[in-house]
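Aim 2 progress update. The chain analyzed this quarter is reproduced below.
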Amino acid sequence: MNSEFEFQNVEEAYQAIADDVMAFPGERAWDEVVGKYGVFSKMVSSEWWLVKDGRVDEKWIGGSKDFRCRAADAVFYIRDELMKFTGDRIWGLTCTIRPNAESGQVKFNIEFDYNKPEDYEESDEVITGDEINESLRNLFG
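Predicted structure tokens:
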């Protein structure tokens, strides 16, 4: 996977994800902010939301394309590192951040999804236009 951003270790990758998630609320107050990432072969899907007083807000205000691209590269890096060291492939990653009243900082939690989406077919095979045309000719005579 050719990546725009390089990471020296998983801590740097986690920091990139946290930066992306923390950028989401902008100046809004929140009790919890969440970034959920789907991890596919060559792309990462993402969605964010915050919770304040029990209400969910998905309106995008903060962040930038650089934050999102860096987070996507970080998710790929973590996927690859987990594969290398555990042999397990992740299909999703959810980052939840909550304020920690005791320390005045935030509490960072990562959950991995190891379940492949039922309707997802992963293939590195590229089908050329000639192969498609040949297949159609065979199909329709």
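The first strand starts at residue 32 and ends at 39. The longest helix spans residues 65-86. These observations will guide the mutagenesis experiments scheduled for the next reporting period.
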